[in-house]
Q: What sequence folds into this?
């Protein structure tokens, strides 16, 4: 049985999709960072308000599987990317408008802000899921890690560039300037996205993947099943369940240290605000190095071991656990250099495992029942969003509880780091379990093909 040849994306095309991710990031960074500060400082509102709004934007992303199902049914990702960026951009403008309304009416302002952040979550769910589906279908297997690195670096660039440029145009600050800057960023993001995906998918193109054990008619027209039936069909796959739990646990460990690392540096080593900001830069620099290193190795190495994304995922999680242990030990050792090295290594290992995980996600999305890439990618995206939504709350909440029990802030933060290290070990086990299921599935597929 022959399999039609898939037309893979070129590097310029992958870079164009990176511009889409950068556009998504540019809108999100304004709403989750800048508006957070405006609500707390300029409007003197409780910090829990922007925190709750950001949580809403994460939890609404539980609709990602439904968005992925829509992409599967239409067999094209581009319309979902376009529609998603339009909803996201509209939500970004409404979020800025809500801050102006908050200054005169708190109730109406909160109502508009809630609607805005719901739209932001929906827009990210649609565009982000469809973008990953397009990458999963059209990127050559050995380039998946490098492609993931390219796209995510473009997103980080979108964060940094938007924050830097918008900051200059917001000086001196006024609510009118905020609305103008937010609207401008949203419009530019929409234009860039539409241009970036122009001609990326042909309306009549069909990428048919015939799967052993599935006849050609079913592969061409898998089913007109409902979303509930499609979800149940995908969830029966043991690999999907294991990888979903891996994504949740690993991203929970990854995100829950974000809000407590800098406070730990302050209480354990007396770091000033400027020094903790530098520490964050050190960690992010490590993440960048880890991403670039993994992208280079997996795309250039000849050894199957060095190109195995599963191996790098497992190894990255275990190495991240060791780095977390380094943070725990840095307090008793009381050595600033030891602490900074642990933070830098944590960044490297986090960057490597996250890119390996995203590359694995892109590979696994096309393995299983026919034409369900979007549903699988949506499930994993929803799991990641849930982990990020809970990560900050759990990390800070556990540190507060531990502080009451232990009576020492530094020990409390170290205890949470230890728990996060355990989560990374659990994530490594779940990744190993997924790897074993993949091998078993491959053996079964060969037997069916015979």
A:
């Amino acid at each position: 049985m022959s399999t039609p040849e898939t037309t893979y994306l070129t590097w310029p095309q992958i870079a164009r999709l990176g511009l889409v991710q950068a556009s998504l990031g540019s809108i999100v960074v304004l709403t989750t960072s800048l508006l957070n500060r405006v609500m707390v400082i300029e409007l003197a509102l409780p910090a829990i308000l922007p925190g709750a709004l950001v949580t809403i934007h994460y939890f609404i992303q539980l609709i990602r599987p439904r968005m992925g199902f829509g992409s599967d049914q239409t067999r094209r990702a581009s319309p979902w990317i376009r529609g998603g960026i339009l909803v996201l951009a509209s939500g970004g403008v409404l979020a800025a408008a809500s801050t102006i309304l908050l200054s005169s009416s708190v109730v109406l302002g909160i109502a508009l802000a809630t609607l805005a952040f719901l739209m932001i979550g929906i827009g990210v769910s649609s565009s982000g899921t469809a973008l990953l589906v397009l990458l999963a279908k059209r990127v050559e297997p050995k380039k998946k890690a490098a492609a993931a690195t390219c796209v995510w670096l473009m997103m980080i660039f979108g964060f940094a560039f938007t924050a830097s440029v918008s900051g200059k145009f917001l000086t001196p600050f006024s609510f009118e300037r905020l609305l103008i800057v937010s609207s401008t960023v949203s419009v530019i993001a929409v234009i860039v996205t539409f241009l970036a995906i122009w001609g990326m998918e042909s309306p009549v193109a069909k990428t048919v993947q015939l799967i052993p054990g599935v006849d050609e008619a079913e592969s061409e027209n898998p089913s007109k099943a409902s979303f509930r039936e499609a979800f149940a069909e995908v969830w029966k796959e043991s690999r999907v369940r294991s990888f979903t739990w891996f994504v949740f646990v690993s991203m929970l460990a990854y995100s829950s240290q974000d809000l407590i690392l800098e406070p730990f540096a302050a209480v354990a080593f007396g770091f000033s605000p400027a020094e903790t900001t530098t520490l964050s830069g050190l960690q992010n620099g490590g993440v960048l190095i880890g991403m670039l290193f993994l992208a280079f190795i997996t795309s250039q190495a000849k050894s199957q071991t060095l190109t195995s994304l599963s191996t790098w995922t497992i190894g990255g999680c275990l190495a991240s656990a060791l780095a977390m242990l380094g943070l725990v030990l840095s307090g008793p050792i009381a050595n600033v250099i030891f602490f900074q090295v642990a933070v830098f290594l944590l960044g490297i290992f986090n960057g490597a495992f996250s890119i390996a995980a995203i590359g694995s996600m892109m590979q696994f999305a096309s393995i299983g029942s026919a034409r369900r890439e979007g549903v699988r990618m949506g499930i994993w995206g929803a799991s990641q969003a849930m982990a990020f939504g809970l990560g900050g709350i759990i990390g800070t909440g556990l540190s507060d509880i531990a502080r009451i029990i232990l009576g020492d802030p530094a020990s409390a933060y170290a205890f949470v780091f230890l728990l996060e290290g355990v989560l990374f070990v659990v994530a490594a086990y779940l990744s190993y379990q997924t790897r074993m299921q993949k091998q078993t599935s491959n053996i079964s597929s060969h037997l069916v093909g015979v």
Q: What stands out?
A: The domain at 11-201 is CATH 1.20.1250.20 (Growth Hormone; Chain: A;). The first helix runs from residue 11 to 42.
